[in-house]
Amino acid sequence: MDIKGVLFDKDGTLLEFHQMWISVSQSVVGVLLARYSTPAMASDESLLAAIGVYGDRVDNRGLLASNPVEDIALTWFEMLMPGCSKTDFIDDVKALFNQTVKENPGLIKSLPGIEAVLITLKQCGLKLGIATADSKAATLYSLEQAGLLDYFDFIGYSDGDIEPKPAPDLMEAFCGTCGLIARQVVMFGDTVSDMKFGQNAGAISIGVLTGTATHAELAPHARMVISSVADFTPDLLDRMRRSPTTTQ
Q1: Are 132 and 229 in a shared domain?
Q2: Which distant-in-sequence residues (6+ apart) come within 8 Å of 203 by Cβ?
Q3: For the residues of the chain, what is the DSSP string, one character each?
Q4: pTM (predicted TM-score)
Q5: Which of 106, 132, 163 is the last residue of a domain?
Q6: Which InterPro entries match (predicted)?
Q7: Domain boundary among 106, 132, 148
Q8: 215 occurs within a structural domain
């Protein structure tokens, strides 16, 4: 197996997910409920549950874990029935998410050992990329705050101008930018959507347990499941290159 590129999901794979996005979502919901007083009488609990947030738990298959902000906004639009256009509401929700992320830089943290692995993979001559459901502004800001931005040859995000995961469009963009074909790429992610994205594109999907999904949820859709990207050592890379059926 000739591996020449590695594509990563961002939150839950490279960056800490739960503390940041639960807090950000709670703050955004609070602003929306104050800003749009409607007969729907939606509560913060109902709005959060609609995107897969239940207290301190995030559903791996929920909107927050796997979908772009536009999908979250559309769901909330139907619940709140605000007195504005759908387009204006989506723009407002996106702006609120971006603003809240920037107002809380302390929540943005790379997962343990990630930077060292990125350095090693670059030294091995691999092309590195990001494929995230997050917006461009939040993606660039969070990677910069975490000190990881400069390691990537490609950064793909979901701003409404490209089909999001699990459609293969972001993989095709990565391969086109870096001169690769999908079967030469390893895709790391923490959700079933990430694993299906890799499969749909013809890449090698590897699940990690640092985000929202369990081993049992990821395993049916992944070549292997490991604890963290930090465990993707040169030895494991060499074993994968030698054996197309490596599992763990």
Answers
A1: yes
A2: 7, 171, 182, 183, 185, 186, 187
A3: ----EEEE-SBTTTB--HHHHHHHHHHHHHHHHHH---TT---HHHHHHHTTEETTEE-TTSHHHHS-HHHHHHHHHHHH--SS-HHHHHHHHHHHHHHHHHH-GGG--BPTTHHHHHHHHHHTT-EEEEE-SS-HHHHHHHHHHTT-GGG-SEEE--SSSSPPTTSTHHHHHHHHHHT--GGGEEEEESSHHHHHHHHHHT-EEEEESSSS--HHHHGGG-SEEES-GGG--HHHHHHHHH-TT---
A4: 0.89
A5: 106
A6: HAD-like_hydrolase_sf, HAD-like_sf, HAD-SF_hydro_IA, HAD_sf, PGP-like_dom2
A7: 106
A8: yes
Q: In this structure, are 177 and 59 located in the same domain?
A: no
The residue-averaged pLDDT of 173-198 equals: 97
Residues linked to residue 208 through DSSP beta bridges, in sequence order: 226
Q: Are residues 54 and 156 in the same domain?
A: no
248, part of any domain: no
Answer for the pair 156, 165: CB distance below 8 angstroms, yes or no. no
> Domains in the chain: how many in total?
2
81 located within any domain: yes
Tens digit of pLDDT for each residue in 45-90?
A: 999 999 999 999 999 889 999 999 999 999 999 999 898 999 999 9
Amino acid symbol at 26:
Q
